[in-house]
Predict the 3D structure of the following.
Amino acid sequence: MSTSTRGSFSSRIGFIAAAAGSAVGLGNIWKFPYEVGNYGGAAFLIIYVLCAFIICMPIMVAEIAMGRNAQLNPFGTYKKLGGKGWAWAGFFGILAGVMILSFYNVVAGWAFGYFLQISFGDLLAQGDYGAYFGRYVANVGDNMVFSLAFMVLTALIVVGGVQKGIERWTKILMPALISIILVLIIYGLTLDNAFKGIEFYLVPDFGKINMEVLYKALSQAFFSLSLGMGALITYGSYFSKKDNIVSSAALVTTADLSIAFLAGMLIFPLVFFQGIAPTEGPGLVFVALPGIFEAMGPILGRVVGGGFFLLLCFAALTSTISLLEVPVAFVTDQFKTGRKKTVWLLAVLIFLIGLPSMLSQGAVSWLTEFVSYGGQTRDFMTVVIDIFSDIALPLGGFLISIFVAYKWKIARFSDELEHGHPKFRGTWEEKFVTIMLSTLSPLIVGFIVLATILERFAGISLF
Ligand code: TRP
């Protein structure tokens, strides 16, 4: 079968690089640390790791297998494998992806601005980095420019197509990011109170585990693995029949977890050294790091700090690419439109959808205090994250497991997995993936999501 018109990855490594590039991003370095900080430190970390390997990895295998089998975008995949009634599940995922990209691009713009202001501006002379961050995210002009620039960059690469665009960059930039993180970890561990940070991060207090911690860890695992909305259905549709899906998914999961883990090892010693509250929230990374770069002196600080945020931008870029690729694949597959035009149209549209999120960080007060639920006032961006990431992704994962187990059926799913892994049947991998998808994943994910929605929006607590 020819896939040449849709594009494909050149090799298994190419796929792994792209999928890991999609997974590793702001989710690991920006979102993961502040969620660990907010939801109990090491207790969160443990639940997170369990969720990623036990619940999410089988769902990742399912997504890739569906996409490779159908050779289509998420909407087309559900429709082809399950009929019209299921196509909405794919569509719902694509919509979630669009909304995720809309706010993600804003945060990527922050990282881009920090790179420029550290390298070429006076960011490292600010002293109070918490206050600086607050002013920074409320500054409409800078935000517009930086996030627009980021969206343009994303679109340029996605126009280039699957192989040339997506694969190439990831393979170079990921090792560079890991290196700079490792150097900073070693530096951070030499600082006073560093081990208080490590203790917070690695010594669990199981008393802190409650429904919200379970839920946040689960949804963060989905977000970080780019799971639950069809990004991996889309990447799976470019994946060769000769390659092993199960081992590739295991590698991607391991790579993603490792980088999130390292981000925590980096941030928490710095947080405790500087006396910052770990519950600082979405500003945590932006507040914890500059002080350290400042201490390195004007030249080294610019180089290391600028380098760090530049690489963070690249990590974010390989993620925004995957987020944009999903609606692009949907529109080009379903409506046979030209790739280039589609990419630019969607990029502009999603940038516009992101404006209220951008303005909800202090610039416009009614967006900043948008609604109140669960006993807290939430800004617009937080509402988008709550709905389209925290709820939609686990829900999407729930639908994928139900779909594969009871509609597409395990037998066909296993047939697909046998391509590239001829001995798949009869292995423990088969048993594990099958049991998870048909019973445990939907039960656990369904329960946690339902309990959280009830608790947060209806005030009903199941415990
Ligand atoms: N996983 C990415 C990160 O951690 C974000 C991301 C990219 C994503 N593609 C996605 C999240 C698809 C959910 C769905 O930064």
In short: Residues 22-23, 25-28, 97, 100, 223-224, 226, 229, 231, 319, 322-323, 393 surround tryptophan (CB under 6 Å).
